[in-house]
Write a structure and sequence with these properties.
It contains 14 helices and 22 strands. By secondary structure, it is of the alpha/beta class.
């Protein structure tokens, strides 16, 4: 008889959420996790600590640039970097401790250590092998690097996102390789702290794949905040000493002309890759994709009966909330119910100031498909609340609808609280709503969300405040 109904490998957002849902559905559940704390990369060295630093440095920016205009005058702010890191650590501890409490509340066993799967129905941790009816692989992802670039977080010169969260001091010069979400968030943190930040990106736009209007406006806003960009540049290597680094790159239009950038710290933010080392997947014969992900069917099953996979180790965007949705859905499947994830309505957020949030299809993608669309756009300069908090310039809300049916197909927001406001559009899309449905819904005044209503009105006869 199996010791467990399900053993989940990995206690990140996908794994711990799946475990809680499994327990709620009456399944005897255990989670294998080798970290000293629960929550995976997201809570320990990713989403949560970076948001703490983003908040702290945003407060610094407000004090330095906006307080005086609001009549808040007095002592000049100074940065105690070690205290800021302590604040970040405290925030992480509160969250990871909360997950441990939820495990105890739901009677979930935490098997401490790193697991492997010797056979279907068996998970080995240390010298002990546990039996289970089902296994869920939720082992997440790790930062990826580039050929010729060696990351060593302990030395604090060439670091990935984990190392960038705990630098011994604020660097005078930082080079960020990669203009994606992680690079721009952490780059903005250090720019606010006084670092001279230069972002080197291979593509010709920041946040490749995002709405084109957002990319253009976002880059301009970040440049005004002090970030410098070198676009269309291929990094060939990084030479590091004990105190400095030199980034070698060449512009794609001049591939033979190698140039260099001097930096105190180089942040390698070139994305993430699935992590499933040590699980024994080759010996099990688990099918993988060409990109090194675990192949699954529509019910998150691998080709080996009784073994499922979710989150960053399978196809799809590497987002904590995508993993959480899959974690809940796979729990439903294992409990004999119907699990579902609507992959067309998964929002993406960049937590800079202003925030950037998107959901659904982009205007360019829909036009490439030959879809007849209509776009409603509203600038936050017409939003009273945004102007009151110094976040209106360059910001906008954009809704893309089917030209004939008015059904919402996608949306993008760059502005204050964009990451929260995007969910109005997510819910609307989940219910198949039209832009008119939003336009006819009363929105409180003064709120940022009025910009969403105005963008919806722009899909019809036109906005009011523009």
């Amino acid at each position: 008889m199996s010791q467990y109904d399900v053993i989940i490998i990995g206690a990140g957002p996908g794994g711990y959420v799946s475990a809680i849902r499994c327990a709620q559905l009456g399944l005897k559940t255990a989670v294998v996790e080798g970290r000293d704390t629960l929550g995976g990369t997201c809570l320990n060295v990713g989403c949560i600590p970076s948001k703490a630093l983003l908040h702290a440095t945003h407060m610094l920016h407000e004090a330095e640039h906006n307080f005086a205009t609001m009549g808040l005058k007095g002592k000049t702010q100074s940065v105690d970097w070690n205290q800021m890191k302590s604040y970040k650590t405290d925030v992480v501890g509160q969250n990871t401790g909360g997950i441990e409490f939820l495990f105890k509340k739901n009677k979930i066993d935490w098997i401490k250590g790193y697991g492997s799967i010797p056979a279907a129905g068996k998970v080995t941790v240390g010298d002990t092998t546990y039996e289970t009816k089902n296994i869920v692989i939720a082992s997440g992802s790790v930062p990826s690097s580039l050929p010729g670039v060696i990351v060593d977080n302990d030395k604090g010169i060439v670091v990935d996102s984990t190392g960038a969260l705990d630098l011994p001091k604020v660097p005078k010069k930082m080079t960020v390789i990669g203009a994606g979400v992680i690079g721009l968030e952490l780059g903005s943190v250090y720019a606010r702290l006084g670092s001279e930040v230069t972002v080197v990106e291979y593509m010709d736009a920041v946040c490749p794949g995002m709405d084109a209007d957002v990319r253009r406006s976002f880059k301009r806003i970040l440049e005004k905040q002090g970030l410098k960009f070198i676009m269309g540049a291929a990094v060939s290597g990084v030479d590091a000493t004990k105190t400095k680094a030199k980034v070698k790159y060449a512009l794609k239009k001049k591939p033979d002309d190698v140039e260099t950038l001097d930096a105190d710290v180089v942040l390698v933010a070139t994305g993430r890759k699935p992590f499933a080392e040590g699980l024994g997947l080759d010996a099990l014969g688990i099918k993988m994709t060409e990109r090194g992900q675990i192949a699954t069917d529509a019910q998150w099953r691998t080709n080996v009966p009784g073994i499922f996979a979710i989150g960053d180790v399978i196809e799809g965007p590497m987002l904590a909330h995508k993993a959480e949705d899959e974690g809940m859905a796979v729990a439903e499947v294992m409990a004999g119910k119907h699990g579902h994830v609507n992959y067309g309505v998964i929002p993406g957020v960049v937590y800079t100031t202003p925030e950037v949030a998107t959901v659904g299809a982009t205007e360019a993608a829909l036009k490439a498909e030959g879809r007849k669309i209509k776009v409603g756009k509203f600038m936050f300069m017409g939003n009273a609340r945004a102007k009151a908090v110094h976040q209106a310039e360059g910001a906008f809300a954009k809704i893309i609808v089917d030209k004939e049916t008015d059904r919402i197909l996608g949306a993008a927001i760059i502005g204050p609280a964009a990451g929260d406001m995007i969910h109005e559009l997510c819910v609307a899309m989940e219910f198949g709503a039209s832009a008119q449905d939003i336009a006819l819904t009363c929105h409180a005044h003064p709120t940022y969300s009025e910009a969403i209503r105005e963008a919806a009105l722009a899909c019809g006869d036109g906005p009011i405040h523009s």
